[in-house]
Write a structure and sequence with these properties.
Layout: H1 3-19, E1 27-30, H2 34-43, E2 52-55, H3 58-66, E3 70-71, E4 82-85, E5 89-90, E6 96-97, H4 104-113, E7 116-122, E8 135-139, H5 144-152, E9 157-160, E10 171-176, H6 183-191, E11 196-199, E12 201-202, E13 209-214, E14 217-222
Parallel strand pairs: 1-2, 1-4, 2-3, 4-7, 7-13
Antiparallel strand pairs: 5-6, 6-12, 8-10, 8-11, 9-10, 13-14
The structure holds ribulose-5-phosphate.
Ribulose-5-phosphate is lined by residues 31-35, 85-88, 98-104, 107.
């Protein structure tokens, strides 16, 4: 099975997980990235069974709309039963690194609101220790160099994602070589640096269920 075939399989499995629980007024939280795109295409096949979606990026909103799925502002939504999104890495506690696509802040907000966060990944994303993938940090542009200097004090190597502007008009530092023994503590410590909007560690609000595509099929991992 190719990586794309595993992504397709987890997208189908995610729709299977949620479809019996969706009602005509349900709103689904939808993530960003190539795996999320497979999910959107599968979700479109059952679009008549729910009301609409909240998108974690402009790209996701565009794809949902192309499928004729209504996209709601999160502020107008009272309840979000599910958030479905990919990840760049996950560990056995279902803590994640996200933000490879730069949508981490909106992703974290939608994940915070959702009752159940279903993470859809292929087996290449599973790690014992988070941090091989650099942790993206969204920063206000004027704070970029200050935040980078503070991160260097943690013996990490922040690299400016040159030319990339987030949907919120901010910039991204991709931080290599972070020691992530305690992801919850590090998430909070980085978020406390002034000028940081948020970082791509999803540990305080980790995933609830991981659907992992493998060569043998999709594994449903629960805690
Ligand atoms: C985007 C993300 C994505 O979920 C993450 O980068 C994984 O992407 P893909 O499904 O393309 O491998 O966090 O900001």
């Amino acid at each position: 099975m190719t990586q794309d075939e595993m992504k397709q399989a987890v997208a189908e499995a995610a729709v299977e997980q949620i479809k019996s629980k969706l009602e005509s007024e349900s709103i689904v939280g939808v993530g960003t990235g190539s795996t999320a795109n497979f999910f959107i295409d599968e979700l479109a096949k059952i679009k008549h069974t729910f009301d609409g979606a909240v998108a974690s990026s402009e790209a996701t909103a565009d794809r949902l709309k192309q499928h004729g799925i209504a996209v709601y502002d999160l502020n107008s939504v009272n309840q979000l039963d599910f958030y479905i999104d990919g990840a760049d890495e996950f560990n056995e506690k279902f803590e994640l690194i996200k933000g490879g696509g730069g949508a981490l802040t909106r992703e974290k907000i939608v994940a915070a609101v959702a009752k159940t966060f279903i993470c859809i990944v292929d087996e290449t994303k599973k790690v014992d220790l988070l941090g091989e993938f650099p942790v993206p940090i969204e920063v206000l542009p004027m704070a970029r160099s200050y935040v980078a200097r503070e991160l260097c004090k943690l013996d990490a190597e922040p690299i400016y994602r040159d030319g990339f502007v987030t949907d919120n008009g901010n910039q991204i530092l991709d931080v290599h070589d972070l020691e992530i023994e305690d992801a919850v503590a590090l998430e909070s410590k980085i978020n406390n640096l002034v000028g940081v909007v948020t970082n791509g560690l999803f540990a305080e609000r980790s995933a609830d269920i991981v659907l992992m595509g493998t060569q043998q099929g999709v594994e449903v991992l629960t805690r």
